[in-house]
Amino acid sequence: MKYQPSYPGRFRDIEDARTWCEKYVSWYNTLHHHSALGGFTAEQVFTGEFESIGKIKQQTLDAQYLLHPERFVKAPPKVAMPEEHVYINPIISENGEIEQETGVNFPTLKRAKRV
Questions:
Q1: Residues ≥6 apart with Cβ < 8 Å to 107
Q2: CB–CB of 29/35 below 8 Å?
Q3: Which of 5, 22, 26, 40 is most buried, most CB within 10 Å of its CB?
Q4: CB 82, CB 37: distance < 8 Å
Q5: What is the chain's mean pLDDT, rounded?
């Protein structure tokens, strides 16, 4: 939040802080296009709307590729889509696959490793 250009640095009071944070969170979830989500908003990913938007984007890219293939020297363009599954602190098995989470994973805490 503090890197947002509109961040005031200091708030007059708690209500001022709450008002600013509510506006920020609303903007962040509904208007901000996240690079880690393929350029979609968090709301679009959460609601599943990104799938139909992604199809429209891909149709546009395909049309531009047909008109100007010389502009795409490496390959036809493809819309970036969000990852299907994401993890925080995934448990990686010995064969390199992500294990299904059965609880909180804090690998640095000895007591969390007890099963």
A1: 89, 91, 113
A2: no
A3: 40
A4: yes
A5: 87
